[in-house]
Write a structure and sequence with these properties.
By secondary structure, this protein is an all-beta fold. 3% of the residues lie in helices and 35% in strands.
Length: 178
């Protein structure tokens, strides 16, 4: 695991607690707060797209926050954007490549307001010890309970309880882990 990169320390809105592994090219943007906790790792070697993409974290506005917990591993090409609220990823969570997470639609759904900044954001909370497969998108307002598994290719637009497996087929299916 790598020690914190010096460039991360130079950004006043980025807080690193302990050692953070940065494996893939990392782009940090925004006016909000980004917290990377001890033992989290951003990017994976060897894994596809290590050299062809980037890891993108943006806490866009001054009210936006991204918090990545302890010992969280996120594979390559992740895009996490907190526009006006918060995105939190709990300790010991594993996330596959090409992960996308937004707290916003970035535009109003109302046709007359689409080009304005008059839209709402809703926080995202991913619990502890969650396993998220490759190519998963998590949309605004979602909470995922502890210990749950999100299957590859899922688009999550509703809350997921703790201790379940979610897989996408022709329709959303939720299975109890017990």
């Amino acid at each position: 695991m790598f020690n914190i990169l010096y460039k991360l320390k130079l950004l006043p809105n980025v807080i690193c607690v302990g050692k953070v592994g940065v494996i893939q090219s990392l782009k940090l943007e925004g006016k909000g707060k980004i917290t990377l906790d001890d033992g989290c790792v951003l990017g994976v070697y060897p894994s596809p797209s290590l050299y062809h993409g980037e890891f993108y974290l943006e806490a866009r506005s001054s009210t936006a926050e991204i918090t990545i917990g302890k010992r969280v591993y996120i594979n390559n090409n992740a895009i996490i954007i907190a526009d006006k609220t918060a995105i939190a990823i709990g300790d010991d969570t594993l996330i596959g490549p090409n992960f996308i997470c937004f707290d916003s639609n970035f535009h109003s759904l109302h046709p007359a307001k689409r080009l304005s900044s008059d839209y709402r954001c809703k926080p995202v909370n991913i619990g502890r010890n969650v396993f998220i497969g490759a190519n998963v998108t998590i949309l605004q307002g979602v909470s995922i309970g502890d210990n749950s598994v999100i299957g590859t290719g899922s688009v999550i637009s509703q809350n997921i309880p703790a201790n379940v497996i979610v897989k996408i087929g022709k329709a959303l299916e939720i299975f109890d882990l017990k």
